[in-house]
Structures are given as C-alpha cells and as structure tokens.
Design brief:
2 copies of one chain form a homodimer. The first copy, chain A, folds into 3 domains: 129 residues, 3-Layer(aba) Sandwich (Rossmann fold), CATH 3.40.50; 145 residues, Succinyl-CoA synthetase domains (Rossmann fold, 3-Layer(aba) Sandwich), CATH 3.40.50.261; 159 residues, Succinyl-CoA synthetase domains (Rossmann fold, 3-Layer(aba) Sandwich), CATH 3.40.50.261. Chain A is elongated and about 80 Å long. By secondary structure, chain A is of the alpha/beta class. Chain A starts with a helix and ends with a helix. The relative contact order of chain A is 0.08. Chains A and B meet through helix 5, helix 8, helix 11, helix 15 and helix 16 of A and helix 5, helix 8, helix 11, helix 15 and helix 16 of B.
C-alpha cells in the first residue's frame, strides 16, 4: 500500500523518453505533467539539455535528488535497461507506457520484466502497454488537452485494461461534467493489477465508486474474495469485454491475456457483489449514480415528468426491470392537486405537463420525496421549455436533503447540455433517455440489496 | 394527398392566437415561422395591430387574401369557434397546437372536433395537443431556437405522438448534425394520423427513412397493410411506448388513447416489415443509418479499430446479434501486412492500433471494403489521437463509393464532437459506443432481408 501511495502521490517524477518534439508522446506527457503535478519533474533524454523549460538529464542516474516515480515511454527494446538503471537509482515505482510486449507476441520480453519485478522485491510496475494514471494533480495521459479534455474532480475511480476505452471515457466525463478521483490504465499488468488497486481504492476516501473495464482476470478467486469484502462498503461496477469466442480471441491479440466465458464472469460478479455493466454505456451510467447518490432502499420509485411520452417510457422501463410505481399517499395527492393544473396527472408517473415551472417542480419533488410510499425518483425535465429557468438546477440539487436517490433525464443541445453539466458537478446524475435514468435507479436498488447481505 | 401537400407546402399561413408577449407560445411560433417560411404570414389577434412587424387581424375572416394553413394556439374552449371561422374563410388545413382535449378527459370537445372534420369533408386537422410541423422552410415549433436548436436538412422524416419526445429528438439531431426532412407531431390525431402520413412520406423524395414514435394505433390492420407496402421501398423504424400495463395506463392519461400489449405490437411490426426500436435511443440510432446507408446484404462485417478494447466490444456485440466477422481474403491480408506495423492485427477485428494515421485508415478501409468476404464495416476511430488529422472525415466519407454500409464509433468532447457532426452531415452515421455502431449495421442487415421478401 505504501508503494501505491508513492505511485499516486509522488514527490518527484522522471519522464524517461521525454521528447523535445511537440506531438510526440514523450512531449505531451511531460507537458501535461508540468501543468498538473506540483512536485519535481525530471525529463530524461540523452540528447536534450532542457525540455519545456525543465532541465533534462541523460539518465535517471544523472539526477542527484531522489525520484519517486518513473514514467517510461522509450521503445520496448530498452525498457528493461531503463528499469535496471531505475533500480540502481532506488526508484520504487514505474509506469511503463511503452507497448511492444505480450500484446504483440513478445512474451519473453514481458516475462523478463515480470522476473525483474519479482527478484527485486523493492519495485512496483504499472503496465506496460498502458496510458498510466490521471488524477487532477498527476496527469500522465499522452493526449493533448485540446483533443481530450480532463474531467473535474469527483468520486469515481476507474481501472481500465484498455487505454483507448479509458481515455475516451475521460473525455466523455469531461464533456458531461462528471467527476473522477483516480483513473488507472493497467495495460498488460505484469505487476500491479485490478485486485491490488481495488484494495487501495477501498481505503481511499475520495473514491466512492470503483468502475472497472476488464478483459481478463488472472487470479479469479482472489478477485472475488477482494471484491466481496470491498463491495460491503463501496460499490464496484464492472464491464467485461471479450464475452464471445470471437471476442476472447480478440482479447488475446490485444493484451495477450486469456478471457473466460460470459457466464462465468457474470456468476462471479454476482457472488462478489459487483454490479455488472452489460454495455460500455452502462459502466458510466451506473458509476455516476453509485458514486453520487444514496441507495434505493426498496423497489418503489416515482417518475416525475413534464413530458407525457417520456413518463410512459420511464414507466415501461421501471416495470420491465423490476421496479414499482406505487400510488402516492392520499395526503400527497391532495397536496399535489392543490397547486397542479387540472390537466396534470397525480398518478404515478406524475405528469406535471409541458408548461411546468421551476416552482411546480420544486413543490412536486418535495411532496414526492417526502412520501412514505416512494423511495426514489426518476425526474424527467425538458430543459428546453421556456418556463424552466436556470433555478431548476438548484431545485434538483436541493433534493439531496431528502436522503432518497434521484436521477434526471434531460437531453438536447448546448443550452440543455450546459445545465446537465452543472447538475453532474453537483452530484445529480443526468441521462439522455428515460430508460437510462430509470436503470440507474435500478442499480442503486441492486447495490442496496448487496449492502444488506450478511 | 393534395391536402397534405398544402399542409407541408402552404403558400400562406395564419397563426390564430399569435401573441405580442415574448415567451408566449403564440409569439414564439410566429417568430419561428417568420424566419423560416417564405410565404405570407397572418397573425390573428383581436387586440393587436402588428406583431413582429407583421400586420395582425382580429379574425381570419378579416384577411382578404386566401389562407392555406391555419395554426391554432388559442385556449381549447374556443378552438371550435376558430375552426368554424376558418371553414367560412375556406381554409383547408389546420394544425391545432392547443391542448385541453381527450388527454385531460375532455372527450366531448374532441368528439365535436372530429365531427366537424367529418361533416365538412373539406378540411383536414393535425392535432390537437401537438407541436405541429417542422421542416427547414416551415418551422412552427414553439421552442425558441436558443433553447432548442434546429437540425440540418436531411433524409429522416419523423412522426411522433409525443411532442416532448419529438422536440428533444430535434434538439439532439441538431446537436449531432443529423438531418431531418419532415417532422410531424400528431398529438391526439383526431384526423390526420400516422397511416396517412406514412402514405404521404412514401412518395416524398426527400424522405429516405420514416421514424415513428407511437403510443397507440387506431386502425391496426390498415397500419400493417400500409407499412407492408411502404417498407418494400422505404424503411420504417418504430418505437412503441406504453408496453407494460402501467405504461398503458400512462398512455391513457397522456393522449387519451388505448395502447396494446408489447407482444402484439412486436408481432405486427415484424409482419409489416417495420424495424422495431426497443428503446428511445434505438429509434434515432437506426433511423440515421437507414436514411443514409445502403443495406448490408448478408451478415458478414468487418470491424476496423485503432483501439483494441473497442474492437473486442464490437466483436462481442456483432456475434451476440447474429453478425459474423469472417477472415479477409488472403490477398487482403497480404495487402494489409504490406503497410501495417507488425504489432497490428489483420484478423477480423482489424486492429490498426493506437498510432494509426489517416493514411493507415484509408488504405485499410479500401482493402476491407473491396474484400469479397466483407459486406459492411463498423469503423472505430479514436479521434483524440494526435496522428488522426481532420482528413479522417473525408476518408470515411469517401467510403461511400464502395457501395457497402459503414457505421462509425467515435465519442468524446468538443474536438471529437465537431468531427462527428461533420461526418453526420456527410451521411456517415456516428455512435458513441461500439455496441451502437454494430447494432446499426445489424439493422441495415435486417432491412436488407425485408427488401428481399416477396
């Protein structure tokens, strides 16, 4: 664990393979580190004196001060040599961005790396063939910021076996305003793997949900055992790629790992209390609900909508996934009727109609969230409606005081997306369709059941 | 049909209930018409002399010139009176935006409207309780453009029983750059319904795919009969809301219509050759593929990707939905190997790896699309990669010459979304996940099978 602490919070970092050429990976990483990391940065490049205003060194051995964490972007052929120099320099933690190992059939090279890690029990390696770590104050992602935005700080930590999948997710999170705590690309995982990271994140106060994109697990039993313990206090949502025979083949040529059957994984996830995402969309949808909302204590929800059609679709989805839409208490219905127009519907789904104002939403949500028959709300808001002023964001945010989960369905273009971003930043998960907003509630119910297990 | 022609292409339009107050529906409709419609516009308002620079009239009867199409936004109580005046004025076509009919239990009022339509066989009504029509040169959507953007011109025509659903879809289409031909909100459909509109759109040259959001169908047999004929030349994709008992109840209180069971609708759609969208996301995903891409002649596709993980997910999806990923011809594999780096994979999924250039995409796509074993391609492109310059857009567009369908998976934030928009405008459908890009190909295969039916 101390190792991993050094990994996420180093005091000094070396970039071995730092480049002077804009556009090169070794340049972009250095640039992104420079503008995120507060500690000392040492570019390592035998042909440079200075890069991006930082003094460069021919080798880590030429640096006099201690180095906590080395990020390696040199060609695969010289990675081992670099690590050995690092060991001499007493560097404990290495992130190997370089590809060219088992994923292209270079198993021998990867095995040597593994051996090195085992014999010298003093070093830890992330990767190879990964895109490293992203956190607000440690950005080693090799994409320039103008091409790939960085998300705000938040409570989701994301472990990914695919760098591409992970990097696009970061960009989507940035676009939607969803916060990330730690992002870790594990690549071929010669050393640090998902199990160890889950253990670390279990204790990490800023992580409230662990999301994992997996292609393979080496130690299935240990994975289940660990997850079983962690999910008692922290939700884990997992998406498994490589579920079909053909997909499993593709995994082999991607990270050189062996994937198992879909059924085995699903059963294992269930046993471990892991929420399974069945698509790449679901992992993100679920993680943002689990990280930011309380659990749904039973399957009883209300749908509040200003669009009748969306209310119907939300209802269909809720019923089909095992949720119920109970009638509200008589007192609630009475209270709703006192201010809603006669053409509104106080049945669940509650349709406050297309001329709904922020005030109407506020009063309705308060009544519904205080109702004893209701344990959570899927709120559909057509932000395009002129009567819905910006205050809707605060009204939805303030729903948190009722201690019941809320998810929001809202979609459109710039005007709407800006409001959605504000909501996400305030911890209210927003979905572009009623189906996805309701399924997120369903997952909050599922996690509630997992928490109740002995 | 002539009636409907007047409906979509009137020479003059009256807005009965035009308002002088910005923010009011009667104001916004007038404003949007003014900036879209090239014919004469007559605001009708007994208290105004002029609105938005247009001369206003107390009643349609005070207008001397002929009026082709009246858009009605007055309170429900006086709609009948207005229609009667319109009949006197010899107006043939009415769009009733006003709500306050069967959807709130005012069945009698709706019945009178229906009677009026039947007895005077010379008028046609769209609505009530709808948001009317949108096409580039006839915009009667009551949302201001700064809140709800308008999509570019294109080949999808959309019929919707829910105004809210429809309006959000317009906004999403605008955001993604997906083109619309005609958008029609049918509301309570006292007169003009989906069947008649399908018949009209069948002959409409600018419509290449008909997308329908349905809550209920009055004449099921006629609907099936019509769709069966139309789908022989034009694809129809349909999303049915109100599938569960609870959802059906919600339909009743939304548009006052009676919905049927999910199974009945699914079977009917199948018989009619209609592609069924199982979620509100799918209707849009499928429509843009069907409107812009050729059919997939058999189930054999290739996946081309620069991200290994995404390739795996695409493969899983393809296999699970009945598509195959055949090996390429030997000559193709040889050709690919001549320029791809050794760590790329020429097996299908074809992984051209994270350092792919535009040139690499171009050569690969050309070889794959010319390959006899392959009938269509799902192309995954991480647009964030610095090596992928803007020319990727042209490369993907140029794939059209091979006559095989292509769908693209690309997601992220501003930088990527701008490229995606360009692609959509060029008729290349783009999806945020590999699953959705592959399922769109699947639907192109399904429609191909429908076309082969006798």
């Amino acid at each position: 664990m101390l190792f991993l602490e050094k990994f996420f919070n180093p005091k000094s970092v070396a970039v071995v393979g730092a480049s002077r050429t804009p556009g090169k990976i070794g340049y972009t990483i250095l640039e992104n580190l420079k503008y995120s990391f507060n500690g000392k940065i040492y570019p390592i490049n035998p042909n440079a004196i200075e890069i991006l205003g930082l003094k460069a060194y021919p080798s880590v051995l030429d640096v006099e001060e201690p180095i906590d964490h080395a990020i390696i972007v040199v060609p695969a052929e010289i990675v081992l040599k670099v690590i050995k120099e690092g060991i001499k320099k007493k560097i404990k933690v290495f992130t190997i961005i370089s590809s060219g190992f088992s994923e292209i059939g270079e198993k021998e090279r990867e095995l040597e790396l593994k051996k090195l890690c085992k014999t010298s029990r003093k070093i830890r390696i992330l990767g190879p063939n990964c895109i490293g770590v992203y956190k607000k104050d440690l950005d080693m992602i090799f994409f320039p910021k103008k091409r790939l935005k960085r998300p705000p700080e938040g409570f989701i930590s994301f472990i990914t076996q695919s760098g591409a999948f992970g990097s696009i997710l970061l960009d989507i999170m940035a676009n939607e305003g969803v916060g990330v705590s730690k992002f870790i690309s594990i690549g071929n995982k010669v050393d640090i793997d998902e199990i160890e990271l889950i253990k670390y994140l279990e204790k990490d106060l800023s992580t409230r949900c662990i999301a994992i994109y997996l292609e393979s697990v080496k130690d299935g039993l240990e994975f289940i055992k660990t997850a079983k313990r962690v999910t008692k206090t922290k939700p884990i949502v997992c998406f498994k790629a490589g579920k079909t025979e053909k997909g499993v083949e593709a995994v082999a040529s991607h990270t050189g790992a062996l994937a198992g059957s879909a059924q085995i994984y699903s059963a294992a996830f269930k046993q471990a209390g892991i929420i399974e995402a069945k698509s790449s969309e679901e992992i993100f949808d679920y993680a943002k609900a689990l990280a930011n909302q309380p659990v749904l204590k039973d399957n009883k929800i209300a749908v509040v909508t200003d669009g009748g059609g969306f209310g119907i679709v939300a209802t269909d989805t809720a019923i089909n996934c095992g949720l119920e839409l109970p009638s509200l208490e008589n007192s609630s219905i009475k209270a709703l009727k006192s201010f809603l127009p006669p053409y509104a519907s106080t049945k669940n789904p509650i349709d406050i109609t297309g001329d709904a104002t922020v005030e109407r939403y506020q009063k309705t949500l308060e009544i519904v969230l205080k109702d004893k028959n209701v344990s959570g709300v899927a709120c559909i808001a057509l932000m395009q409606i002129p009567t819905l002023t910006d205050e809707i964001v605060d009204v939805l945010k303030d729903c948190k005081v009722f201690g019941k989960p809320i998810t929001v369905c809202s979609a459109g273009s710039d005007y709407v997306l800006e409001r959605n971003r504000k909501l996400e930043r305030l911890g209210i998960p927003v979905y572009p369709t009623p189906e996805r907003a309701v399924k997120a509630l369903k997952v909050l119910y599922e996690y509630g059941k997992i928490l109740k297990r002995k």
